[in-house]
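ok so I'm stuck.
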Amino acid sequence: GLAGLFGILFVKGSLRINLRRFFAVTGLVLLVLVARLVAGSLHEFFEVGLVPSTPALLTVVGFIVKGSTSTFILIALIALPVLVMLPELRLRPEVLAARPDESGAERRKRVAGVYRTRNWQTALMSVTLATVLALGGLTYATGQAQYRPEPQAVTSHAGMVHVSTEALQTNQLNLYTYAGKNVDVSFMMIKREEDDFAVALNVCGICPARGYHQEGNVLVCDNCNAPINLETVGMPGGCNPVPLAASLINGEIQIAVDDLDAAQNRFAAR
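replied:
not stuck anymore, here's the structure
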């Protein structure tokens, strides 16, 4: 709608802008958008293993493909071209001054046109500001809706970590931290059914160890924003959490300390 309003006003001549500056700014924003699309494609290739990756590259790609980054790109695409018109809002004295070759009626008509253009520009900028504020508010609200539980510290006994399942809620993310010999190891547990529990490391299979949060019925990778169906937690591949071997015995999830210690290297560079 905003783009349509801009186009109509521009074609009708109600808006007068510096085209060179306008296309320079929009060209820059479009290049950023192209970079976002390329990063998204690379991420898909990384997930299926078609293209090799490094933690540094995944950090950059993950930042670009995040939903919040996409929103900021959209805000820039909307706001920057309109901000180009800011210098045009200033009414210079020579524009309003009388010209030797025009009558009083001609001057009034010309000045009225100047004010009309300025009013349209102000209106368009006001609509743009409202749109940007709405998008920013939506991004903030989405961030507030994320569920990220406080990790619970666990200890070991006789080479095993024991976690009671009694208080676990169905389809809800639970995070735990085990103090390894070198670094802390974070893992998750999700109760899907009465005797169906998913246990995995709180680290993506391909991304750096940023962890996950929950949005509704999906987990979301904190590095790249990839959504993970809760039913697939515990399965290897792509951006899924790295599976962690565990057993359900007498209402407790039991995890071998050796398996947690072996996972320390995944968290060492965090």
